[in-house]
Design a protein that fits this description.
The protein is mainly alpha-helical and 152 residues long. It has 2 domains: 49 residues, no CATH class; 69 residues, no CATH class. Helices cover 34% and strands 0% of the residues. The chain is built from 5 helices and no strands.
Length: 152
């Protein structure tokens, strides 16, 4: 890791699971008599992965370390909050605490995964950041004719 802004960032999305996760994953893989396996055994010619010989915790852990990937969009790694919050990385205007002229404008600032593709929310984060950087004021709330009629 480097603090030099002239260097391109190096991102590694293949972070290994935490140690406690290995045992949970290994228990799932090791349970060869699970309800799912019992139901599909007649349709299986042979086990492909982790392999019939992967019977020890060490073998299962090696398989998990070699094949584990993330299948979700990476997000939520840069908590938004006040500067006094030691876990907060950015403020409400996406500025990185302790720096000048640096904002994080991506899914990192999202607190949780949405129930759909994250493309649209990230576009909106980028649009908001563009407004903040340009110093644009908030838009006035839209007044819908039907809503105005319902109030009277």
């Amino acid at each position: 890791m480097s603090l030099k802004t002239s260097l391109a960032p190096k991102l590694d999305y293949s972070a290994p699971p935490a140690d406690g996760d290995f045992y949970r994953i290994a228990n799932l893989l090791d349970d060869s008599e699970s309800a799912i396996v019992k139901r599909v055994r007649n349709f299986m010619e042979r086990e492909i992965a982790p392999g019939e010989n992967a019977t020890t915790d060490a073998a299962l852990e090696a398989h998990i370390r070699a094949t584990c990937i993330t299948v979700h969009h990476p997000l939520g790694t840069c908590k938004m909050g006040v500067a006094s919050d030691p876990m907060a990385v950015v403020d409400a205007e996406l500025r990185v605490h302790g720096t000048q002229g640096l904002r994080i404008v991506d899914g990192s600032v999202m607190p949780d995964l949405v129930g759909a593709n994250i493309n649209a929310p990230i576009i909106m984060i980028a649009e908001k950041a563009a407004d903040l950087i340009r110093g644009r004021r908030l838009l006035e709330p839209a007044r819908m004719a039907a809503a105005e009629h319902a109030r009277h």
